[in-house]
């Protein structure tokens, strides 16, 4: 477990900051201070203010909560259908397997970010359109991995022993194959969580994700870009650091989980 200390520490500190921070920093992220436009970081505003006088720290914390929660939603919403498709494909086989995998291959043929953008544009943009776009792009990851894991585990001697003792295929699948595949899927979940955070921030940056004035890290970077060359560095640096910390933490977690659990793709 010592291998997991660093990623859990990184993500734990970030989660505690964004979820418990508002208890200590009671400023509305949408509240405008008309006496402090583009104020540099100070004791009154530790991360400065933006062009409309909104506190960047309050917006950073709100954006962090949104990013972590939406990342979890994407991870779960991609895992459930993806894992079911992979299980059905591996268990039934034949034509069903061929059709399901060709559909997954067709979706995976598109670069994930472009697929997410296409879905978001087709649904008119906005946060939840972007979320759905990212979910669609993650389903093939889970489906193909689950199918390969089920096929691999089915060849193990203890599976043959279970079936020889009278265990039905579905019993073996539920009580033996799925629990063993769960460790690999857990590693994939960590990877997808980080992917979701950075992709949603990217969609927000290009105007296809959360909309102004929603405090979201990608949107904050977009709003601050026009001031990057005039000295207001805090508008882009702090949300950028938030994305960096979250993604590095989740990728490190996926890598360490892969080593600890002895399998999986990080």
Question: Could you give a quick summary of the protein structure above?
Answer:
The chain is mainly α.
Walk me through what this model shows.
The structure is a single chain. Helix content is 72%, strand content 0%. It has 266 residues and is an all-alpha fold. Helix 2 runs parallel beside helix 5, helix 4 (112-122) crosses helix 5 (127-153) and helix 8 (217-225) packs antiparallel against helix 9 (234-261). It is elongated. The relative contact order is 0.15. The mean pLDDT is 89.
CATH homologous superfamily (4th level) name? MetI-like
The portion of residues forming beta strands comes to under 5%
What characteristic shape results from the CA principal axes? Answer: elongated
- Terminal-residue CA separation: 18 Å
Number of strands: 0
Helical residues, percent = over 70%
CATH hierarchy: architecture: Orthogonal Bundle
Mean pLDDT: 89
Integer count of domains:
1
**What is the CATH topology classification name?**
MetI-like fold
Helix count from the secondary structure assignment: 9
Uncertain runs are none
Main β-sheet, in a few words? Answer: none
SSE order, as H and E? HHHHHHHHH
Radius of gyration, Cα only, in angstroms? 22 Å
By CATH reckoning, the class would read: Mainly Alpha
SS class: mainly alpha
């Amino acid at each position: 477990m010592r291998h997991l200390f660093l990623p859990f520490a990184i993500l734990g500190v970030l989660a505690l900051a964004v979820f418990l921070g508002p208890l200590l920093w009671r400023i509305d992220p949408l509240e405008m201070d008309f006496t402090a436009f583009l104020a540099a970081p100070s004791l009154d505003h530790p991360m400065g203010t933006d062009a409309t006088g909104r506190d960047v720290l309050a917006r950073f914390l709100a954006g962090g909560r949104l990013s972590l929660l939406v990342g979890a939603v994407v991870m779960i919403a991609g895992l459930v259908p993806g894992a079911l498709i992979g299980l059905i494909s591996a268990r039934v086989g034949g034509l069903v397997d061929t059709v399901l995998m060709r559909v997954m291959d067709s979706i995976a043929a598109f670069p994930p970010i472009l697929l997410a953008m296409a879905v978001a544009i087709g649904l008119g943009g906005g946060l939840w359109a972007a979320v759905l776009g990212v979910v669609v792009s993650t389903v093939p990851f889970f489906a193909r991995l689950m199918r390969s894991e089920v096929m691999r585990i089915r060849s193990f001697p203890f599976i043959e022993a279970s079936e020889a003792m009278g265990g039905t295929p579905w019993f073996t699948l539920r009580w033996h194959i799925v629990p063993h595949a769960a460790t690999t899927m857990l590693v994939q979940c960590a990877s997808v969580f980080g992917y979701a955070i950075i992709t949603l921030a990217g969609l927000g940056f290009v105007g296809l994700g959360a909309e102004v004035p929603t405090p979201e890290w990608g949107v904050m970077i977009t709003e601050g870009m026009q001031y990057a060359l005039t000295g207001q560095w805090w508008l882009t640096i702090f949300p950028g650091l938030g994305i960096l910390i979250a993604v590095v933490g989740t990728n490190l977690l996926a890598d360490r989980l892969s080593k600890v659990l002895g399998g999986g793709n990080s």
